[in-house]
Amino acid sequence: MQLNNASHAVAFLQTMRVSAVLATVGGADKVERLRQVLETLDQLDEVCEIVLVWQGEPDSPLIPNGHKGLRVILSGTKALSHARNVGAKFATSEWLWFLDDDTVPIGADYLKRAATYLVTHGCQFATANVRTVGTITVATRTKQTFFYDDPRSARLLWEPGLLIPRNIFLQFRFDEHLGVGCLHGSSEGYDLGIRLIAAGIRGFRHVDLELDHPPLVLSQAFGNRIAFYSFGEALVMIRYRLYGRYVILLAKTIAKMIVNAARLRRREAVWNVIKLWALLLGPLLRPEPPFVIGALPRERRLVEAPELSGTP
């Protein structure tokens, strides 16, 4: 969708309609935060439907209801890229807005501002800044707006908050061999961004478009998270021949490992060791589809009136 024409831009600002797409594994620990996300979306006029891809038990009492335009898509495949692609397929609006089940948009005028920035900058997609209050943040908060117009900049394309025309997204989609639920557990946004840029599709990450994300919680599995994420990051860099970026990342990781070891920060040094071997190993590992393949996605029948669903 081109927004350069003035009349088209005005019409876009007045009539923008969005399908919010998010996925959840349906755990009890996710319920409260998911409720906050859905209640926030209820207040945004531009959101005409919420497409929730439910990856938990299909008969779970935790499946939400009562939200504006909520459609629940049942999927037995617990993989985030797969879920986002499924949500995009079922969505009906001209624009898609990808969120996670724990990312809350900041400001009731979030989408109005996003639409204005798209028109102002003549871009086709937008991504969000990240606001995390806590010790370990999920992503770096940027201090200035920057544009995705070079493959190297795509490394900072964070998937939650991606606002993009549905017709453009369906041409590219997320690589379902990358992301949470796969061996290469990250960088699906990096991969998508590189492909969008190569096709001449321009976007930005705006400092004023923020999503609130809770801080990461340390656990015994944190090292596994680092490994899976580093597998994906390294694979994408080598896949697209970004060798310079790859070497720089290796050098930074080695430097941090040495500094943390010298300062007797054992835990941080171990994390750097894990990241280093994962960065080296990731490009050598064959990308695999999601670990858990379940039933084909289907829209949930209306519990109150099953005959209205129109599907068996």
Describe the model.
The protein has 312 residues and is α/β, with parallel strands linked by helices. The protein folds into two domains: 6-218 and 293-305, Alpha-Beta Complex (Spore Coat Polysaccharide Biosynthesis Protein SpsA, Chain A), CATH 3.90.550.10; 222-284. It is 38% helix and 16% strand. It has a six-stranded mixed sheet with strand order 8-4-1-2-3-10, sandwiched between helices. Strands 5, 6, 7 and 9 form a four-stranded mixed sheet that branches. Helix 7 (222-239) runs parallel beside helix 9 (266-281) and helix 8 (243-262) runs antiparallel to helix 9. The longest helix has 20 residues, at 243-262. The protein is globular. It starts with 5 loop residues before the first helix and ends in a 13-residue tail after the last strand.
How would you name the CATH homologous superfamily of the largest domain?
Spore Coat Polysaccharide Biosynthesis Protein SpsA, Chain A
Tally of discrete structural domains: 2
Task: Kindly report the spatial arrangement of strands forming the biggest sheet.
Answer: 8-4-1-2-3-10
Number of helices: 9
Q: H/E series, N to C? A: HEHEEHEEHEEEHHEHHHE
Q: Indicate the structural class.
A: alpha/beta
**Assigned CATH class of the largest domain:** Alpha Beta
Using the coordinates shown, work out and report the CATH topology of the largest domain.
Answer: Spore Coat Polysaccharide Biosynthesis Protein SpsA, Chain A
Question: How much β-strand is present in the residues?
Answer: 15-25%
Largest sheet: 6 strands, mixed
List unreliable stretches of 5+ residues. Answer: 303-312
Give the N-to-C terminal Cα separation: 36 Å
The rounded Rg comes to 20 Å
Which descriptor suits the 3D outline? globular
Number of separate strands: 10
Helix content: 25-40%
**pLDDT average, as an integer?**
86
CATH architectural grouping of the largest domain:
Alpha-Beta Complex
